[in-house]
Amino acid sequence: MQGQFASNDTHKYSVILPTYNERKNLPIIIWLLAKMFEENKLEWEVIVVDDASPDGTQEVAKQLASVYGEYKIVLKPRSGKLGLGTAYIHGLNFCSGDFVIIMDADFSHHPKFIPQFIRLQKAHNLDIVTGTRYRSTSKPYLTDATPGGVHGWDLKRKLISRGANFLAMTVLNPGVSDLTGSFRLYRVSVLRHIITVTQSKGYVFQMEMMVRAKALGYTVGEVPITFVDRLFGESKLGADEVVSYAKGVWQLFTGV
Amino acid sequence: MARAHRVAGVAALFITLYTLVFLQTLQVPFIERNTVDEVLPVIPWWLLVLFGSYSLWSLGWGLFTFRDCPEAYHELLSEISEAKNDLRGKGVSVD
Ligand SMILES: Nc1nc2c(ncn2[C@@H]2O[C@H](COP(=O)(O)OP(=O)(O)O)[C@@H](O)[C@H]2O)c(=O)[nH]1
């Protein structure tokens, strides 16, 4: 790549942030991202894919682009709520980096883990590094990884999560411990490849990406992350989600 | 070939072997027929119980070791207020 780099890392990291009604969260997550990238002297950009949020997410995104620069905060809005999976595909069209980071904009994924993702990727030349709430060490081992965990979940929520995870592990044997998490680092070509063969939408999308990655022979590492459940706005987990999750696992079992 | 097909293939193999031994078409070497006849009928139940207890243990252990991270929450809260102050100074609307 061309350009001047303040560190010996000559890669560029593109973060794709899909947003829907994240006016309160977006400025802070961008602030945290910017701080982390600058401290680690990395080349970066954030692609904000907003689906016409009625709460004014785009106005605040524009303000952020003028503060940090339009080459750093790239706004690629869409005209309607078209779903998370296609938001990544849309964002991917505009990435200029050679690595892509996918995360939620609601602070459940903290940028402080990204340097560890990058170190693990480099150490083992991995195609994908995924965050995991279920492990206490990274895989392969990294000395500075700290145990993962969650905040804001009661026992019932933890049980559902463990049960769902156990089901997927037993049925799919995916080789990673956190299938539904969506905090991941991808080599850009690998993400392009996997995303074109991934068919499911919504909840199952993240799971299918990992199962496909394994089936296609890509290398995947894991870094434990702490997961603070969304502070603002609500997170949904009801009977419908559980049923569609189980259906998704079955689809992947018979389809991949 | 999907994972389901591979799993079905392996399962079919084992079920066939089991049936053949059960129907005495196939003999198990080095083990007396009496012993085989006694052990064979309980194997499916044994597998079922084994899987059940494995599931329960693994769920229970997973639940027990599911870590809470209040420190991450408190750290995040202070970072949020720091970010808000800084962003307000730069003219970004935060509330
Ligand atoms: N662009 C876009 N972003 C979305 C859509 N749905 C959710 N998001 C964003 O995707 C991330 C995860 O959202 P969601 O899965 O609803 O939250 P969770 O239930 O707390 O995991 C957040 O940053 C949301 O703002 C959508 O339809 N379009």
Features:
heterodimer; A: 256 residues; alpha/beta; Spore Coat Polysaccharide Biosynthesis Protein SpsA, Chain A; 9 strands; B: mainly alpha; Dolichol-phosphate mannosyltransferase subunit 1 (chain A); manganese (chain A); magnesium (chain A)
Textual characterization of the structure:
The complex is a heterodimer of chains A (256) and B (95). By secondary structure, chain A is of the alpha/beta class. Chain A has a single domain, classed as Spore Coat Polysaccharide Biosynthesis Protein SpsA, Chain A (Alpha-Beta Complex). In chain A, 40% of the residues lie in helices and 17% in strands. In chain A, strand 2, helix 2 and strand 3 form a beta-alpha-beta unit. Chain A starts with 11 loop residues before the first strand and ends with a helix. The mean pLDDT of chain A is 91. Chain B has 95 residues and is mainly alpha-helical. Chain B has a domain of 63 residues. Chain B is 73% helix and 0% strand. Chain B is elongated, with a radius of gyration of 29 Å. The two termini of chain B are 53 Å apart. The relative contact order of chain B is 0.05. The interface between A and B is medium-sized, with 40 and 30 residues. The structure holds guanosine-5'-diphosphate. Guanosine-5'-diphosphate binds next to strand 1, strand 2 and helix 3 of chain A. Chain B: It is found in: Endoplasmic reticulum membrane.
The helix/strand class of chain A is alpha/beta
Q: From the alpha carbons, calculate the radius of gyration of chain A and give it in angstroms.
A: 17 Å
Bound molecules: guanosine-5'-diphosphate
Shape, per Cα inertia axes of chain B: elongated
Mean pLDDT of chain A: 91
Number of strands of chain A: 9
How far is it from the N-terminal to the C-terminal residue of chain A, by CA? 36 Å
Unreliable stretches covering 5 or more consecutive residues of chain A? none
Instruction: State the strand order across the main sheet of chain A.
Output: 3-2-1-4-7-5-8
Uncertain stretches of 5 or more adjacent residues of chain B: none
Distance from N terminus to C terminus of chain B (CA atoms, Å) equals 53 Å
Biggest chain pair interface: A-B, 40 and 30 residues
Which radius of gyration of chain B do the C-alpha atoms yield? 29 Å
Helix content of chain A: 25-40%
Strand content of chain B: under 5%
- How much β-strand is present in the residues of chain A? 15-25%
Element pattern of chain A in H and E: EHEHEHEHEEHEHHEEH
- The oligomeric state of the chains shown is heterodimer
- Report the major sheet of chain A: 7 strands, mixed
User: According to CATH, what is the class of chain A?
Assistant: Alpha Beta
Strand tally of chain B: 0
